[in-house]
Specification:
This protein is 39% helix and 15% strand. The strands form two sheets. A three-stranded parallel sheet has the order 1-2-6. The chain has a three-stranded antiparallel sheet with strand order 3-5-4, with no helix packed on it. It has 183 residues and is α/β, with parallel strands linked by helices. The longest helix has 20 residues, at 161-180. It has one domain. The protein is built from seven helices and six strands.
Length: 183
């Protein structure tokens, strides 16, 4: 093994010491409760000591895996509920909103600047497409309206509205590249 992909931001929370987001409930069972150590720092230290790279894995748009999960006061669903939308049993951050992308970008850059990670992975970039993949354009618009998902309709033949949602989600990649000054 030469690389480890460590999930650091599963649902608008953190598996590392963060001033931006609450501790993940996956560590202690309660969102916002410190485990008493920094799991990412420990992972990097131990992996690098063995010649193994550590890549940070982010879910930039997931908010809650289950709407019944108790969120801490500083979690996005309570601190900025206008950025979130419920879909089925989950809650997602709306990628079409600049504040959503900015929030995710700040978390990513915080990790990149404070930790010696060797790579960054973004998961769930295609969330809206996945949620509505089998729907025709008219059905997508009806369902998107129901769940208050922001979308744009473009004047292109054979272009479904979810193609434009891809563009909204691509902005975080462009912003990350610009912020990290990646050539």
């Amino acid at each position: 093994m030469n690389a480890l992909i460590f999930q650091v931001r599963p649902h608008g929370d953190a598996l590392y010491a963060s001033a931006l987001e609450p501790w993940s409930p996956w560590l202690t069972g309660i969102m916002g409760r410190s485990p008493g150590y920094d799991p990412l720092a420990y992972c990097i230290r131990e992996a690098h000591a063995r010649g193994i790279e550590v890549h940070a894995w982010f879910n930039p748009f997931r908010a809650l895996p289950n709407n019944t999960l108790a969120a801490s006061i500083d979690h996005v669903t309570r601190a900025a509920p206008q950025l979130t939308k419920r879909y089925g049993t989950m809650t997602w951050c709306d990628p079409s909103l600049a504040d959503t992308r900015g929030r995710a970008l700040r978390a990513i850059l915080d990790v990149v600047r404070r930790y010696d990670v060797d790579g960054v992975h973004l998961d769930d970039i295609q969330i809206t497409r996945d949620a509505f993949y089998s729907l025709a354009a008219a059905d997508f618009i009806r369902v998107a309206d129901k769940y208050q998902i922001t979308y744009l309709v473009v004047e292109k033949p054979h272009t479904y509205p979810f193609d434009v949602v891809y563009e909204n989600q691509d902005f975080i990649v462009y912003d990350l590249k610009a912020s990290a000054e990646i050539p």
